[in-house]
Structure formats: C-alpha cells, structure tokens
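User:
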Amino acid sequence: MSAVARSVAAGKTRVCPHCKAVVLESLSVCPGCRHHLRFDVEAAQRQEAAIRALEVEGQLCHPSGEDPYEYSIVVTVSNEKGQEIARKLVAVGALQGGEHCTVSLSVEMLPTRAAPKPEPPALAVVPERPEPPPAPGGRRLPDGTILMPPGLKPKR
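Assistant: Predicted structure:
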C-alpha cells in the first residue's frame, strides 16, 4: 500500500467501513470504533497533533427513592449564530436505586495539514584516516603490526 499524501477538502466526510459512523475523510483512525481507516503517514501525524478542545465528564446518579429513573443523552452542535447544525440522541436507559453511570464528551480539533517535521541535525563527517603505505617487504595488519618475511622481526 502506498503512503502517498492525499489532498482532502477540509470538513469532507465519509462512512467508516467498520462502524458505519460518518467521519472526516482526512482521518487515519476512526474516533468512534478506533479502527484504522488508512495507513497514511501525513494523516497519522495530523491525528497526533490533535488538540483536545473540550472535555466534559459527569455522573448520572439515581436520586433517593425506589422508583427507577429514565435518561436520554442528547448532543447538540450549534454554529456561532446559534443555528443548530446537528442534534444526536446518543443513548437512553434507566437507573435503578443506587445505580449510576458516567457520561464523557470530548472534542478534538485537527490541523488541516500535518505540521512539517523539523530537519534532523546533520551528522558530523569524520574524514577517513589515510592508509599508510605498505612496509617494504612486509604487510600491515589493521592493528598496525607489520608482518615481515621469515627471519625478520615485526615492527610496530
């Protein structure tokens, strides 16, 4: 599979093939089911740069009394003019006496392009040591020892 970066219009959506949720086309991992949607280096870098813009967590607790209480969890998104963009019923249920459940809401914001990676520092170039010429009548070993023909002593 190719890791070629694709240009996607900001806000363009598609359906996750795993959970069938509508997700941003630019994502590499579905925020709902957390399955991989594509293996793209740039998209993965964008998701790593995500900013957690909002995070709210709360508990629904059954009030004192014996009758069960029903609940509905609704998420509404509005634009800057107060116009409703989306309204989703997320979950419904009932709490019996003494029961509770936790509700968490988080919103992540992603840059439209991956931040450029800083260039790694250049490695220092070490010049190679010039090879000394072979000794007359002998052979030099890597440790510097010179092998001489039989009858002559090695030099260092």
